[in-house]
Specification:
Mean pLDDT: 61
Low-confidence stretches: none
Strand order of the largest sheet: 1-2
Strand content: 5-15%
Structural class: alpha+beta
Number of helices: 1
Helix content: 25-40%
Largest sheet: 2 strands, antiparallel
Number of strands: 2
Radius of gyration: 15 Å
Shape: extended
Distance between the termini: 48 Å
């Protein structure tokens, strides 16, 4: 295993995890991103 500070796999995964938020409804919310849904929201 390579434990290097420049390892892209580590930091990128953390950033992706922080960008995504899962609500209690089970829906995934993306922070800082606008999601357009063509389906009507009930």
């Amino acid at each position: 295993m390579h434990n290097q500070p420049n390892d892209a796999a580590g930091p990128q995964e953390l950033d992706m995890t922080q960008s995504f938020e899962i609500s209690e409804d089970g829906k995934v919310r993306i922070a800082g991103a606008v999601i357009r849904d063509n389906a009507p929201v009930n």
